[in-house]
Amino acid sequence: MEDAVMKIRGVLVFLIFVLACSLSAKADKTGTVRGIVDGPGSTLLADAEISLTNKAGGDPLVTSSDEEGEFLFENVPPGDYVLLVKSPGFQDAQLPVTVGSTALPHLRVKMKVAQVSDQVTVSASAQPVLLAGENKNAVDITSELLRNMPVKNGDYLAIPSLFLDNSMLGAEGPKLIVDGVEVNQEDLPASSIKDIVVNRNPFSAEFGRPGKGRLEITTKKGVHSRYRGTILGVYRNSDLYAREAFATDKPFQDRKLVEGEVDGPLPFLKKATFFVSGRYRSFGDVAVVNALTPSGPLVTNRAVPLDALGLLGRLDVRFNPNHKMMVFYRFKNKTQDNQLASNFDLPEHATTLFNHGNELRVFETANFSSNVMNQIRVGYKADADNISSATNQPSIVVLGAFSSGGAQVSQAKIQRNGELEDAASVSSGRHLFRFGAGIRSKFFHVTDASNFGGTYTFSNLTDFENSTPFLYTINTGNPSTSFSWTENYAFFQDDIHLRHNLALFAGLRQEFQSSVPYAQNLAPRLAVAYSPGDGKTVIRGGVGIYYDREPLDMVSQSRLYGGNITETIIPNPTYPSPGLTGVTQTVPSIVRIEPVLRSPYLVHASVSAEHQLGRGQNFLTLELGTIRGVELYRTRNVNAPFPGTTIPPDPNFNRIDQFESSASSRGYSASISYRGQFRKLQLIGHYTLARTLDSASTMTSRPANNYDANADWGRADYDRRHQLNFIGLYSLPKSFRASIVFSAGSGLPYDITTGSDDNGDTIANDRPAGLWRNAGRGPGYLNIDMRLSRRYRLMAKREHAPTFEWAIDAFNVLNHVNYDNYVGDLQSAFFRRANGSLPARQVQLSARFSF
Hints:
Shape: globular
Number of helices: 6
Structural class: mainly beta
Mean pLDDT: 89
Radius of gyration: 29 Å
Distance between the termini: 29 Å
Oligomer: single chain
Strand content: over 45%
Largest sheet: 22 strands, antiparallel, barrel
């Protein structure tokens, strides 16, 4: 507890120090012209080019609006001026301004959408009318919307992740794009997020995944006009919780989160702004153990604490209106103790996770003319991950009942990345070209001493009581390896505006990874947009190919278990000791990568119709889509005994697990999306009717029959027939606000197995005759989170007055039991039942002070 308090104090002291340094540099306000740039629907326009020209002559003063749409000219000599505001996609706006002895009021410049023309202007935010990225079924979660939503545990990705499509994710999950750069992990303070977008420009050649397979995050930058800051405190306690469905009591839990940010102009450099934010989390959570032991059912609670610190710093320098630079730094440090992989795991089967990382990036953006823009990105990142078991005792796994002993997990990974990317935009007549390339060099050092203490596996509780395991495995050898690879990509895209209401988007992307021998990964993308009639309706269609990369775990396992580590497998061993003689006389098992491995890819196509409802920013979109996965990853034992035999083809090895690109998937969907605002109510909703089938769940999934792997064709693990998600924010009188996150869906499938190794391949995933994979079906899912908040404006007469806000968040308001981990093991006492559930109702309190 004292450590947590000290870390909270450290974060606060750091933020206060930065604020104090900033406030010491306040400038004189005499002769100041300031204002705000508004777009349609009172949206704020960032990066608008603003000039102030003296009618008497002389060079104009030039600046740009910040991300809140604000602009500022200081120390302006008295006189009559013309204020000119330009922003791509909008008509130029002019205002007469007189600077004298009387202070000017705040100016508000209202921008009107430009008429369609044949010429496309390029800048960092160029927006032609039928731009590919303007599809209305994109989900844009702004910082203002995010801060008013019920966000659990500070996990701000949970809400936008509701709108992802699992069939479009890669082997390592959704792609995270932060400020245009692809990252593997993300742990940014929520206060640093400007917006998060899902499904923008789904057929863009600039990205490796479809729109619903990636999250695009934009971080905030400091403003020139003033110094700002925020301090947020969040608290949850088990006194405000409902009891978990499978728990016998309600143990003490408590969660604390402190976050803050400070930004503004850099004191010693007028053309620069800074943004600094930090977040500290201390969670005292509890996991429910629900197992069946020889002594009978066991239901108990296990403390699973988390301690995490994250810092972010950003420096923006605008040398002139056409040249700017951004420096970005991120730090993270996270520890999670007593983690349990399953509700069957007894407390001694826990693990501890540790993650530490540093990241530095530099962005340089130059507008060479109104038609040419270029951005160079340079980055370096270092991450360290460690997982260790609570004890090194042999692991005991009784399928469908319990797991005890040590978890036999001991892994350490150190990764260092160096990156160089360049992207450019050029407009010429009806064409807007976007092209670029990048290279990432990655260096790894991996240590994996997992299962060096051995694991016994029993088919059921009776076999455990009779001391008759069906399998014993143990690893020996050198647990470390080092290696590196490079990833290259290049893309070219042409947005062709054929007519004022017709646009064609064509692109090509090439991916290369040095660890994969096949290099011809060409991914064409093609899309079209047509707006008939009065322009309120847009019909879009597109098709594209998207390649995946070879994951780190695949390469590290093949290197370690392909020679460094010897995995020994003993079927039907003695217990509690397999006997040293038996170990030395047993042939080893290895892991390897298929020699002709190719990169998996998705073929995605869709057609949609968007329609604007009324005169406001309310849009309804109907979409039909299909996706096909080709040469997806799976694992297959190529040395499994032939059907009807017990001897492996190669007697020198027991199991030869081979990573292959031989699985496939196919999915179809129909969806309805709504995005808009009706008076004081803002809504984003999405309903999907879908069906997805595949022949492997993950890259480590093994087929029931290694000689007929495609017989595993069945429902995908994530296949929900119906899915409805929507979020809403309503502004109430007296500065109250209410919001809701609603999510409901039909049941997920689960696999039904015999619980035994019937075919002698040492894996107990055999299914009863006549049953396909994932034949079981779980119940539906329903969750409603709500938030009520009120904001107070302090010292209301002051310009940019500070504010205080309190909020109450309630998660799973209805306390609906959402069952988890359905058991399909025929020999388990839990068969066709769940032994876990998602969290019950929880209430969270928070307070925010902004200045």
